[in-house]
Amino acid sequence: LAKTTQPISMDSYEGQEVNITCSHNNIATNDYITWYQQFPSQGPRFIIQGYKTKVTNEVASLFIPADRKSSTLSLPRVSLSDTAVYYCLVGEYGNKLVFGAGTILRVKS
Amino acid sequence: NAGVTQTPKFQVLKTGQSMTLQCAQDMNHNSMYWYRQDPGMGLRLIYYSASEGTTDKGEVPNGYNVSRLNKREFSLRLESAAPSQTSVYFCASSEGLPADEQYFGPGTRLTVT
Fold it and tell me: Could B99 and A92 be called an inter-chain contact, meaning their C-beta atoms sit closer than 8 Å?
């Protein structure tokens, strides 16, 4: 199982861009990189997924270098409502996808 | 669509009691999952079902059993509850494609005294 390492916590201010990096040195060829967001007392919610290079959707961008040993979730212009825990998952199928401890993002006004 | 539903929302058990957590999804998904989340920690997979009739152990299966009753329902049973099983339990489902998006239920908060 691919192990991931993320910062425990990050602080930011409203309107700033936030970048959260995840390290996954033993990523396998067929593994995808997926990010989830979790608010208190709720289940996680899918944010974005990628395999290589850059992926962008309406809420975030995901940057993956050529060696795929790390990835960076970018949240543009965060607001107070983006305060949550962000998880990086690396894997292919259901029981090969492992949630790490996640990164607590605190957005301040 | 209700998505993924879980019952009950809260439960208190005494050590040694048994109970079943129910999960149902209405998205016609093939795969279903049971996770537990302890305070300040990430989610840990208990059991996984790739399709109706199949189940696989996850990271922390000891003390639990599961049943994939049909395509919609996936139940988690604690035969003899222990204080170490105090946790929040989340059920999730996905289409079953590689690394596809998982949809989570609201969770069951279980306390074992």
Answer: yes
List pLDDT tens digits, range A41-74.
Answer: 899 999 999 999 899 999 999 999 999 999 999 9
| Cα end-to-end span (Å), chain B | 36
What is the mean pLDDT of each successive set of 10 residues along chain B, which is 113 residues long? 93 97 96 93 91 92 96 97 97 87 96 97
Q: Please judge whether B43 and A44 are an interchain contact, meaning their C-beta atoms are less than 8 angstroms apart.
A: yes
DSSP string, A71-83: EEEEESS--GGG-
Identify the residue among A32, A48, A97 best suited for mutation to test binding to B, counting B beta carbons within 10 A and taking the highest.
A97
* Nearest-angstrom CA–CA distance, A45 and B9: 19
The answer to whether the Cβ–Cβ distance between B41 and A34 falls below 8 Å is no
Residue A73 CB contacts under 8 Å (≥ 6 apart), including other chains: A19, A20, A21, A22, A35, A47, A48, A60, A61, A62, A86, A88
